[in-house]
Amino acid sequence: MLEIVILAAGKGTRMRSSKPKVMQTIAGKPLLRHVVDTASPLLPAGTKPTVVVGFGKEHVMAGFDTDEIVAVEQTEQLGTGHAVAQALDKLQDDAVALILYGDVPLIRQQTLQALVAKTGANTLAVLTVNLPNPKGYGRMLRNDSGDIIAIVEEKDADEQQRNINEINTGIMAVPVRLLKKWLPELSCDNAQGEYYLTDIIAKASGAGVSINSAQPEFAWEVEGINDRRQQAALERAYQRHQAEQFLADGLMLVDPARFDCRGELSFEQDVEIDINVLIEGQVHLGEGVRIGPNCIIRNSSLAAGTCVEANSIIDGAQVSENCTVGPYARLRPGSVLQKSAKIGNFVEVKKSVIGMGSKVNHLSYIGDCTMGSGVNVGAGTITCNYDGVNKFQTEIGDNSFIGSNSALVAPVTLASGTTVGAGSTITRTTASDDLAIARAKQRNITGWQRPTKK
Ligand code: UD1
Ligand code: CA
After folding, report:
1. Which one-letter DSSP state was computed for residue 203?
2. Active site residues
3. Is the pLDDT of residue 11 over 90?
């Protein structure tokens, strides 16, 4: 049986933010959400982690559904031992409690599994690392046989102890029964006047309880965030690691250092992503998709063979096979491109279907529109979908041709094969194969005398 306790009561003064620290983000996701998402799958089905909240607790709790976490409040921050003690009531006696930190977001599941595997009914395990510069951390004290006997905090350590490079990451797994016995016995008679969780290690050693240790594969897994500099550094570590994994899985990132993914990306073979691309939310890229430089792709799916040219933004769109988007295109939520459609430069599409092989190549706004297949929309065409109060639909039938600089005033329906003369303002329904032309007739005044300067 496993229980999880996540400490998240701190304010994070050095972030200089009104938000509680654990709600700051890495890769667009709150720090605490990273920890909950990583750790929760280790729990037996139907159980949830206990989160110790304090500063900004409403803000923290609002970030989670009630079936995701159990929140307990620590009203005063009296130390890590006191924080864990607030959760004890929620924990089953016969379980092992895995203690995590809301501001140590990148811990990996494999590492936690390995740590928990080293515990037993009478055995606890501490996650440690060796740091060339261990300043500020609690040091691991071991006896001559190499057994852990205590953790001493930097502020309480003597000079010899400060030379120890093995530090306490803070993450540990301890039988609940032992926590329930030892936490109420902690004293705050130390340099910081706090109830140290780390003091249970000396108690365990004294009681003949075995103390194991495990190490993470990567140093960034156990790095905490206290200020913006550390937040930015950990963001880079996360992005670098993620990019390396994508490369290993066959995604071609022209420059992995100039690629960011804040969400979940799935992809098929031979996808190529140029520099400075940002992926957000849930994105799927089909076989052979190419993304040009400086694009943002958010919550969208792009099918095989589609090509996105430079400086395009695709948000909430479904793009079918072999489409071309951009350069400088913007697909907004609800955009659906059917096979081989083309959206060109300075074209905005919103909540519209662009039919198979249809083209909107230049400088247009297409909103609330259902467009059939084989349509050609000339440069500067606008669907006037909004009367200032309500939105209306435009329908454009198969194989229609919309002349440049036309305004299609919705609601309006153009039947298949409609031709619209350039510069028309269209307000009335057409029948199949009509030519619709709605513009002032041209007048030519012969021998016109231009004004002269007075
Ligand atoms: C702690 C460890 C230290 C370890 C270091 C790793 C103790 C006594 N020391 O020190 O050995 O090397 O972490 O980073 O455990 N928190 C609460 N309530 C409290 C106190 C803390 O929720 O009353 C939370 C904080 O918000 C923070 C975490 O627990 O997320 C760690 O607390 P912090 O005071 O930063 O511990 P350190 O002094 O860094
Ligand atoms: Ca700390």
Report:
1. H
2. 362
3. no
Sequence-ordered strand ranges (E) for 311-389: 313-315, 317-319, 324-325, 329-331, 335-337, 342-345, 347-350, 353-354, 359-362, 365-367, 369-371, 376-377, 382-384
The ligand that comes nearest to the alpha carbon of residue 198 is: 1
CA 213 from chain center: how many Å? 32
pLDDT, position 448: 96
296 to 3, 289, 367: CA distances (angstroms): 39, 14, 20
* Mean pLDDT across the chain: 98
Mean pLDDT, residues 125-141 taken together = 97
Q: Sign of torsion, CA 91 95 101 105?
A: negative
CA distance 351 to 368: 5
Whole-number percent of the chain with pLDDT over 70: 100
Distance between CA atoms of residues 182 and 85, nearest Å: 10
Q: pLDDT per residue over 197-228, tens digit each?
A: 999 999 999 999 999 999 999 999 999 999 99
- Domains of the chain, first to last: 2-222 (3.90.550.10), 228-436 (2.160.10.10)
User: Can you read off the two tokens belonging to residue 310?
Assistant: 């430079």
Residues 6+ apart with CB under 8 A from 217: 108, 110, 111
**Which residue ranges have their beta carbon within 6 Å of ligand 1?**
7, 9-10, 52, 74, 77-80, 82-83, 101-103, 137-138, 151, 153, 167-170, 196-198, 224
Q: How many CB atoms lie within 10 A of CB 438?
A: 15
Q: Provide the Cα torsion 313, 318, 321, 322; round to 10°.
A: -20
User: Which of the 8 DSSP states describes residue 331?
Assistant: E
From 449, 404, 410, 447, select the one nearest 426 (Cα to Cα): 410
What whole-number distance in Å separates Cα of residue 409 and Cα of residue 295? 31
Distance from the alpha carbon of residue 49 to the mean position of ligand 2, in angstroms: 21
